[in-house]
Amino acid sequence: MDSVETEGDTIDAAIEGALKLLGVGRDKITVDIIAEGRKGILGFGAQKARVRAELRKSPLEHKITAEPLPVSGELAAAPIDNSAMTEKAQAALQEILNLMGVKATVTQSASANGEETILEIRADDSGLLIGRKGQTLEALQYLVSRIAGERFAGEGPHIVIDIEKYRERRRKTLEDMALRLGEKAKRQRKTVTVDALSAADRRIVHAALQDDPWLSTRSLGQGSYRRLLIIPEGDRRKKEGEPAQAEKSAAPSLSSGGKTPATAESEDDE
Q: Which H/E stretch holds residue 113?
């Protein structure tokens, strides 16, 4: 069992339930908050907090998972043609750009680790193809990957579309933002809410802060783009040690200045 969904009177209670089911410590999971929960009025309208917890995989586990299992018979005789998939992806991207009326060329290269095929776009109007926070680039990558036949992790090369080294710059921006907001959360002892990010961007922030013992990160909401909470663990442990205040402080503790996460302080990462 790699993931579970649990409920509780508070978010922390729901997380504790997930930890018991998975049999691991808090640092071994990532948490998505599905519902924050509410007390209701005179018992009416109350709603349980609900979270989805998923086991984190170590780099070694990712490598083992990605390695193909030995097969026999016809399956072994029909390996995936990586070069054909890459050529198809490059042709598809070039055709999409042509249909968009964008004058651009597409070249391909392999990543340093050899696990990704990078399709580099060269165009005059890079901003149009990147979009706000890389949304257009992500959409292009999704379309091209599906057209080329990339369906499962480990099946064929992972296709990455880039332009003017945007992804490297974006990663550095997000890592710097994560460290800066992490220090702010610890200094002020308040949870900091980051504006909605894509799944790829959230993974960068999670990874940047996962080794800090005084912080934890949680995704909040549903859908591809979700907000992310950076939580000072030391402050949260202190509150958990005060039973009389636990229920009262559970919901406000996830925001800055006593607001709900929806209105908590956000900082733009660009």
A: none
Q: What is the pTM of this model?
A: 0.52
Residues 6 or more apart in contact with residue 200 via CB below 8 angstroms:
138
Exposure string for 192-211, b = 16+ CB within 10 A, e = fewer: bbbebbeebbbebbbebbee
Ordered strands of the 158-163 beta sheet: 104-110, 116-123, 158-163
pLDDT digits (tens, 9 = 90+) for 195-229: 888 888 899 999 999 989 899 998 888 777 888 99
- Please tell me the distance from the alpha carbon of residue 104 to that of residue 151, in angstroms, as a whole number: 27
Neighbours of 241 (CB within 10 A): 9
Secondary structure element (H or E) that encloses residue 24, with its range: none
Strands 104-110 and 158-163: unpaired
- Taking a C-beta distance cutoff of 8 angstroms, is the pair 137, 131 a contact? yes
Sign of the four-CA dihedral 69, 73, 76, 80: negative
Cβ 8 vs Cβ 47: under 8 Å: no
pLDDT for residue 260: 37
For the chain, what percent of residues have pLDDT higher than 90? 23
**Helices 243-250 and 11-22: angle between axes, nearest 10 degrees:** 100
